[in-house]
Design a protein that fits this description.
122 residues, alpha+beta, 4-stranded mixed β-sheet, 4 strands, 39% helix
């Protein structure tokens, strides 16, 4: 299990606390420092079953600078979104938790973190 976090984020800290309380074995990735490649983002999106615009933080200043609200949200624009997430990792929703069963969740709620925990291998 891996969790992508921004240490300044209260949702990330809450997810880490819950993982620790449940005794989970996980790796922390500070994705603002260890920026994911476009291919890594594609992999996480596949695991999430989401599109890049679904995990984009469109309220960030850089989103406004890029004009994300005007970008198409379809297959023709998918790579542009993914490249933007890699170039500007602040745009990535957090925390992202990759579960042991090959899926992933956006762990913004206790329920989502518990969902990831429930996917541990016995």
């Amino acid at each position: 299990m891996e969790i992508w976090i921004n240490p300044a984020c209260s949702k990330c800290r809450g997810a880490l606390a819950l993982l620790d309380a449940e005794g989970a074995d996980y790796t922390v990735r500070r994705y603002l420092e260890d920026v994911p490649t476009s291919d890594e983002i594609r992999g996480v999106l596949d695991r999430l079953g989401l599109e890049p615009w679904d995990i984009a933080r469109t309220q960030e200043a850089v989103a406004e600078e890029l004009g994300l609200e005007e970008w198409g949200r379809d297959a023709a624009h998918r790579d542009r979104w993914i490249d933007a997430l890699s170039a500007h990792p602040r745009l990535i929703q957090r925390p992202l938790i990759t579960a042991e069963d090959g899926t992933a969740v956006v762990g913004r709620s206790e329920e989502a973190v518990r969902d990831a925990l429930s996917r541990r291998r016995p």
